[in-house]
Amino acid sequence: MTDLIPLGGKRVLVTGAGRGIGRGLALTLAASGAHVLACYRGGGEHIDSLAVRLKETPGDHHLIQADVTDAEDVQRLLEEARTRFGGLDGLVNNAGVISHIPFEELPYEEWSRVLDTNLGAVFRLTQQALPLFGERASVVNIGSRAATVGIPLRGHYTAAKAGLIGLTRSLAKELGGRGVRVNVVAPGVIATEAELPQAVVDKYSGLTAVGRLGRTEEIAHAAAFLLSDLSSYITGETLHVDGGI
Ligand code: NDP
To answer: For the segment 178-235, what is each residue's pLDDT rounded down to a tens digit?
Structure first.
């Protein structure tokens, strides 16, 4: 069994926790000793099974439905953090959306949807979480290896994820004095429940130094490190977790 980064009693909000990397984050952070407030958007069997898994894990964990692009939902989500936990020690901005559209056909509505979910929601959540933070807090923004590389058909997505790096750098400087650290974890290609054609798996595996796609818990361990006091002198950083792609 892999050793876990100790998060003893830290109160952490994770967005987009229903599936994919967010689910791995919620489960790994809970297993690491954090109390997890897991935000999900759409319900279903996967949420029921997440609730069961979290219930089996020691700690005070809660599942809250909220759309991070909806200002009222975000307010309610953070109110839940206040009433259930009395504050927050960590915030993981993971919820994200992507689409693959040639730039010359990209409708402004889609540009806005992708920017608002991947970047606007981070603004909203982080700003409103500030009053809940104690003397020390850590914000982890889930970015993307693609942000500083660029990929055709993902101009809107990479713009949002690159914006996250600038926001992270500025907030690290602005909030460091009050004990808030802000960092990015930038995944490469991570295998999730989402089916990928074998040709795509082979292609991206072959581009990495380690010859395979990443696992959700490998993103979660990096986030756990940045949430933990072991990383107390790290802020404004982008940690690429990409198998050396
Ligand atoms: P998935 O599409 O599997 O999951 C995204 C999650 O975000 C879902 O739980 C989804 O909820 C949630 N979400 C989307 N929009 C909203 C919203 N408006 N309000 C609340 N929740 C929302 O993505 P991944 O797990 O693959 O990606 C997670 C993060 O990692 C994203 O930020 C992504 O950009 C980043 N990333 C992923 C990589 C990968 O290879 N997987 C590579 C690089 C970066 P619902 O289930 O309701 O749709």
So the answer is: 999 999 999 999 999 999 999 999 999 999 999 999 999 999 999 999 999 999 999 9
- The whole-angstrom separation of Cα 161 and Cα 122 is 11
96 CA distance to ligand 1 middle (Å): 4
Which residue range forms the structural domain that includes residue 64? 11-239
Ligand 1, atom 26: nearest CA belongs to which residue? Answer: 20
**Predicted pLDDT at 110:** 98
The total number of structural domains in the chain stands at 1
Q: What is the pLDDT of residue 2?
A: 75
Instruction: Give the CATH number for residue 186.
Output: 3.40.50.720
Task: Give, for ligand 1, the residue of 37, 41, 122, 200 to mutate: max count of ligand atoms closer than 8 Å to Cβ.
Answer: 41
**Residue 84 domain-assigned (yes or no):** yes
pLDDT band of residue 1 (cuts 50, 70, 90) is low
Neighbours of 195 (CB within 10 A): 8
Q: Is the CB of 209 under 6 A from ligand 1?
A: no
Cα angle, residue 158 at apex, residues 64 and 182 outer, rounded to 5°: 55
Is residue 157 among the annotated active site residues? Answer: yes
